[in-house]
Amino acid sequence: METKSIAQKLKDFTSSTTKEKINSSQRILSVIGGAYMLWSAISSASSKKKTGVIGPAWNAISGGYLIYRGVSGHCPIKEALDRSDNKIISFLHKN
Prior knowledge:
The chain is an all-alpha fold. It has one domain (22-94). 69% of the residues lie in helices and 0% in strands. The chain has helices at 6-14, 24-46, 54-72, 76-82, 87-94. The longest helix is centred in the middle third of the chain and has 23 residues, at 24-46. It is flat and about 50 Å long. It starts with 5 loop residues before the first helix and ends with a helix. The mean pLDDT is 78.
């Protein structure tokens, strides 16, 4: 049975057939920022202070997305904005 290092498993997990859309520094910052936002959401939800539901939920969703973005190297938002058939961006560049 072959054993792989954690780094090799992570590389295999994040490699895809499509070209990587975000660079390494963006990936690292996304994971760090996402982890902080997720930790913030969990800690505020578990605190005894009444913080409401919207703030922690938004932080949890945003943090999870940033972690996904950093681990996978794929950003659907950036991809949508970079598409050449994006009518809004085309309109803004013309005017």
